[in-house]
Structures
1.
Amino acid sequence: MVNPLFHIMAKGFAIAFGFNYGNTVVLMPLAEIDPILYAIERHKIKWMLGVPALYRMMLENDRIDQYDLSSLKYCYCGGDVLPAEVFKIWKGRYNIPLYQVYGSTEIGHVTYSLLNMEPSCTVIGKPLKSRKSIVADRDTLKVLPYGETGELLVTSPYTIKKYINKPEETKYSFVKIGGEIYYRMGDFVKMNEDGTLEFVERTADIIKHKAYRVSASEVEAVLQDHPTVIGACVIGIPDPRVGERIKAIVVLQEDARGIGSSELIMWCRGRLASYKVPSYIEFRDMLPKSKVGKLLRREIRDEEKRKTEKNQATP
């Protein structure tokens, strides 16, 4: 397991699949790919947990075929949106699907992919019996029927119902519905008739462009499908004429040559509706990420906000 144990995904996974059954848990102190691959080979790892970025880095490692990964049976992924490209390539290369785990610090683990069903990169699994999940309209909090997209809310007798000394955050994030306190997960999902939850987009990822709601995650996934792109962050830049313009910050492979913003914009035009295509693209050497490899989109947004305020203040 690569994720640090202070992260809810790793802690819950270690307890559920490791300690509960007396299994050996192999902890990796750093997300360094060769040591991880060596550990899988040496310890004959059967269960693995990592964020999507980890699986991408493994697939892009040019020495991966030197290691024996045949012991792997169940590979779990969580902490961020799973790109379809990573999901497909991993399954095609190793004939092992990427199962998903979904949750948050406030509510713990909420769903796991069912082992008796073929997983999908969009289906995040079925809620645990200890978690009561509903899909509701974000504004009215009215519970929606199967198949309709809304915000996911979760409750459980075993989870927190408020933040300490943060009344405003508590008021927004914890709401009473039918006499129970639910936590707002901040994600748009839809519940299928079989009870599984299908991820649509994160509320914090939404860019409002020309009255359209654009999912930053969707645009990022398309950019990351380009063979030279290893990372992408899409944000909205305030513009009084269109609401927000779509900007993409992209990281290319070290050996990428001759790839410019025009080519990536053309790539997006062939795969997205016209209103979802980025207005401009910025190239960087790296993107800010948390200790578990999760994209810190807020840092990018805050940075762009400071740039805008500075430019407006300049006479």
2.
Amino acid sequence: MKHIFVVNPASGNGKNKKELIDRITAAAAEAALDYSLYITKHRGDGEAYVRSTASKGGRVRFYACGGDGTLNETVNGMAAYENAELTMIPAGRGNDFPRSFEHPDYFDNIHRQIRGKGRKIDLIRYNNRYCINMMNMGFDCAVVTNVEKWKNRPWMSGGLSYAISVGFTLLSLPMEEMTISLDNGESYDGKYLLVALGNGGWYGGGYHAAPRARLDDGLMEVNLIKPVSRLTFVKLVGDYKAGKIYENPGVKNRLIYRQCKSLTLAPKQNTCLCVDGELEPVKEVKLELQPKAVRFSVPKE
């Protein structure tokens, strides 16, 4: 099997790029690996390269070396090809997707990664594209917009930038008015502070927003949070981050939690959807859970 390391030099503010490449080179040489390195040039370049390479046939594993956005590009490039599998070497700001596994720290160990084993996991399909981790609308999109403004500051880590952006966004407390229609016939119409849809369980550099998420259960996690005051938000956000929001009595009548296989989001006006940490403009969008849609390599224990 060919091993291809797709390195995003902009991830994590470009820090430690040389150290990462040196670790890859050393581990590959030690394992006598058939491998290559590809350094992405701009947004979308990694996806195009992965698609072109996977389409040539032959077993191949792509290592997305970057953040959740790099992982998203990689999965969208290879998901249509049965000969391809992927994994992630976390080198971004948030690095949330590995948190959905039993040993997230193993993802940074390239020796374990090389000896990893593939397993089929689900994806969320929308607009002829895929989400591998989480999608958000409303408050979180405003947070990510602010993160983008500050991400290039060298002292700003993923978790810190997200935390500061949450506080800044709290001043305006943005809401989205929309209709959410589930596959079981349920429909919800109104204003929402936050809509969080999960295949994986974590986002934002450590927010455990979907604690019941499983990557291979064939179900999408749905959290709809109704408008709350700033004081209530502050009281709830700690449990939301810790994955304990369902047990907090303060969310009664404020949180709608569901699991489904498909749903439609219909905002009342053009807005943004945050997909694996990247913003995309949307109007109305249908989401469908694709069971066991891609082979993902889990590092060897």
